[in-house]
Design a protein that fits this description.
About 45% of the residues lie in helices and about 25% in strands. Strands 1, 2, 3, 4, 5, 6, 7, 8, 9 and 10 form a ten-stranded mixed β-sheet that branches. The radius of gyration is 19 Å and the shape is globular. The two termini are about 40 Å apart. The protein contains nine helices and ten strands. It has a domain of about 200 residues: Vaccinia Virus protein VP39 (Rossmann fold, 3-Layer(aba) Sandwich), CATH 3.40.50.150. By secondary structure, the protein is of the alpha/beta class. Bound molecules: S-adenosylmethionine. S-adenosylmethionine (SAM) binds next to helix 3.
Length: about 300
Amino acid sequence: MTGFSADWLALREPFDRSARAASAAAFDLPALALRLRRGDPVLGVLDLACGTGANLRALAPRLGGVQRWLLVDHDPLLLAALPGALAAWAEAEGFLFRREAEGLGIEGPGWRAEVQPLRIDLVQDLAALPLAQVGLVTASALLDLVSADWLDDLLARACHAGQALLFALTVDGRLDWTPRVTGDDRLARLFAAHQRRDKGFGAALGGAAVDLAADRLRALGCELKLAPSDWVIDGREGAQAQAMLAAMLAGIAAAVRAQDPGAAALATDWEARRLRLLARTRLRVGHRELLATLR
Ligand SMILES: C[S@@+](CC[C@H](N)C(=O)[O-])C[C@H]1O[C@@H](n2cnc3c(N)ncnc32)[C@H](O)[C@@H]1O
């Protein structure tokens, strides 16, 4: 769960989608797109740490109109899986999909997007981001992985260039289990501490990320909108939810063992007890969305 395999991203995507549907009403994306176009028919969107393109799949139909997406990740395996994931999505949704010499093209009702994947390491080469080419900078499931210094650097660059920023699906530290079992609280504390370990960007912000980003963006003069987008994973709904719960359990137990070897036996026992309860377990994982625009 702490790695970013295409399989893990595919497992979480339906839960991401439901979570984002719940927060969609908070952001008027067609109005935002209109404002960001500033008369240009094409809206440029830069997706940071795109994985296999889930953020585009969530946003492009909601933004509407003509869009040009630049999708950035450092992982060549995820970038290689991206065209296939977009093609499968387009087919399932009845959208047109084209592979073109210079990138990919997708067309749905009321919108179309040119899509160009870019391999950039966001730690080593933030200066290489083509910020000047876009009106919207976005990322999903990234903000809790980054450090305060990295975020400051990104915000300074993006705000200087006048882009709107939309950070989706940032964990906020809440983990609510039903039913509860012995060990939940200790494991949650150790898991939260592990979320703050360096994920390549310096000490990670983890559950503090949205509040810190909001403070920094307000100080930079941005107008903010925040909305909850919690995962709700209910094992009573069947195999998909149970697979997601099992992946969460394995990820939390592994993170706890890495964080505190003294809690390894508890983590293993907790995971085994919770696995026996999968079919009647409901887990809410707190996430938030943040949209920042310059006043
Ligand atoms: C939790 S995944 C989110 C992926 C995608 N945005 C989504 O919502 O499915 C985090 C992503 O960050 C990317 N990532 C991590 N470190 C990175 C770096 N230094 N530069 C670029 N991308 C990075 C990973 O490859 C992965 O795709």
